[in-house]
Design goal:
The complex is a heterodimer of chains A (156) and B (123). Chain A is α+β, with helices and mostly antiparallel strands. Chain A is built from three helices and eight strands. Chain A has a five-stranded mixed β-sheet with strand order 4-3-2-6-7, with helices on one face. In chain A, strand 2 and strand 3 (52-59) form a beta hairpin. With 123 residues, chain B is an alpha+beta fold. Classes of the chains: A alpha+beta (156), B alpha+beta (123). The interface between A and B is medium-sized, with 28 and 21 residues. Strand 5 of chain A pairs antiparallel with strand 5 of chain B.
Amino acid sequence: MTYRTLIPAALAIVLSTMAANAREITFTTELKNYGGDGAYVALYLTNEAGQYQQTLWIAGEKSKYYKHLSGWARGSGQRSSEYDGLTGASVAAGKTMTVTLDLADSLIDSGHQIRVDTAVEDMRDNRYDVVVPLTTEGVNQITAGRGYVQSFSYSF
Amino acid sequence: MNILRMTALMATFLISTAALADDDCTDPVADWQPQENLRQLMIDNGWDVKRIKVDDGCYEVKGFDQDGNRVEAKFSPATLEIRELEVKFTGSGHRSGYLKKHSVQQKPVNNKNTRKKPKVNIQ
């Protein structure tokens, strides 16, 4: 086998390995009709001990309110490098937010948890509104939140 | 003679005002980002921020860079793009390669979330 055939073959292997190492996951978060302004929602990943690992999405555009997403704020230190490019509009009461992203396979079935913090202006903040383990078994299982989250599920 | 001097003075004043006006930031106030964002951006870049104030419509930051050099920089308040940078090389850092090093770091500080942006839908 010559280098000419070896290189594309090696490239194909690397690319297929990369594709296999990440999985597209969709997180669906439905909010209750709590009767207030749009909710700020932090969707983030922790390890088994609940220690912050990675921000997945922050709904709500004004960073001055991020401190109210207290579980996430404590873990991430609210560093902009943690959430750059991962923020968008807040979620109105009764609406459903779906976030689709690629996550490494190594994060699934390895004790990692998905956590959701929520906060609404002039209403109470909900640290750990949702805490669910990120497992293959947990796919499409609907979990009720403790605060403004009506239901939460994920699929891949 | 006096008139001539006055005219010259006026001309100098007008020219300098025009020159100064070019340095102003004209971002609409509604689009301004909070100073805290800029502070965080600079902290992420390794700066020790001593003061942020508004000058000529721009954010002006005074502090020290990661090598301990005294720095003074102006930023557009809406985009937080750097417009002016003054460095006094007094710290332990070496000046060679400074521009190269900082031109890389002034890009968005996001090195952790280099993956593609999530698709988000709210219904």
